[in-house]
Amino acid sequence: MAGGGDALRALLRAANALLQQRRYRAALAVLKGFRNGAVYGAKIRAPHALVMTFLFKSGSLREKLESIAQATYTHSRNLAYFVFTYKGLMALQSRLQGKKIPLHSFFAACVGGWLVFGENNPINSQITMYLLSRILFGLSRLAVEKGYVPQPKQDPFPLFTALIWGTVLWLFEYHRQTLQPSLQSSMTYLYDDSNEWHDISDFLIYNKRTDSK
């Protein structure tokens, strides 16, 4: 038993010594990026999939749990692959050119996005649209910081959010098929299902009755 403990301690010392080697730092950073991508993807997707599945999807408990597990795995895997690809290409470009330049980041992310998130499926679509909203905010702030757009005299957020909500509800009412399925489900629950009830049970307690009354 003692011999096994000594071997484990020796292995840990060797691993820690390896982690301190500067020559392997870029490769190790890529591996840790893969790890962090997998963990973060699971943390983000699992609770979201849990809520959305039990709120809006029908089927047996087993089918719902399988759906949650599949969505979590896909998000976790894709994010891990992307971080691995991005950091690997960043390290490679920096090594080849001897320095890091802004174009490296753009190129590496484009390649990673194409390879990992290029398939048009609900999860990739949701992630891309999430990023798009953040990009628009970021570019707007950058344009003001660089002086390309004058600093607004008043906070533009009220007008911006009014236009966003006006547009999304117009699309939902008249061009619903253009919206992402999960957004359609959420808005159907909020705006369509609230128009239907039969008695107090499906007015206050349940969204829809499951019996044949």
TrEMBL record:
One GO CC term on file: peroxisomal membrane
Coiled coil regions, renumbered to chain: none
A Pfam family hit: Tim17
Xref: PANTHER family: PEROXISOMAL MEMBRANE PROTEIN 4 (PTHR15460)
The name this protein goes by in its record: PXMP4 protein
The species this protein was found in: Corythaixoides concolor
